[in-house]
Structures are given as structure tokens and as C-alpha cells.
């Protein structure tokens, strides 16, 4: 995010107010592509999987609207989070879901970082929660901006 002119404080407030959910003007596939292009600029972020849920549903004979799931995590922050509370591992890697609803709108939702911090009593996870606050909303905002 260093190269973007986003106000981190305002982006965090927006993410929290919307429960870590954003509307995208792009298709599901393009939204995921854009998010991964942003994440790719950070070599410390490991990308684990990109699952086309529409294709998975089709295997069993079901038809759903476009939907994908993406998993990633910052290798520099995992140790801080898990040394604070190993059970926070339930929320890792960060899961991001992107789907098209019945009205044709595309949405992107990430793990609720506030919930993770509170539920696992991380108390900021030795600075990891603040680092996520500083990065994740900006990454998503960049992915969904026109």
C-alpha cells in the first residue's frame, strides 16, 4: 500500500463498518485477479489456494452463481498472532470469499479481523493486528476500485 494514496484510517473504518465486506464493480474472476495482483507485490504473503466454487458445485451436478475462495497469509505476522493464542489458527490463513448475488452484484468478504482479535483475546497480537489493519483494507479497496 505504500504506493497508494489511500487514507488507512478511513479504509479501516469503512472495513469495520461494513463487517469486512466490499462491493466490487468487476466480475468475480476479475475481482480475484485484481486482489491477487495486489497481494503479489508482497513477497512475504503466501497464497495458498484459489478455489472456483462454481466449478466445484458443477462436479456434483449443482449450478451456482460465480463464486471463488482465496486463502493467503503474511508469513511475518503468523508467528506474532499464534504466539499470542495458538487457537487463532482457526482463522488462518485469511479466507476471502468473492461471489455474485442474485441481482448480479459482486461482493468480496474477508475474515473479520476485529472478531479474530476479540474472540481469541489477541490484544493486537504483538502488533500483527495493526499491521493487518494497515494492509488488508487497502489491498481490497485497490482490488475493487474503478
UniProtKB/TrEMBL annotation:
Name of the protein this chain belongs to: DUF302 domain-containing protein
SUPFAM superfamilies to which the protein is assigned, alphabetical: TT1751-like
Pfam families, per the entry: DUF302
Domain DUF302: from-to ranges: 51-112
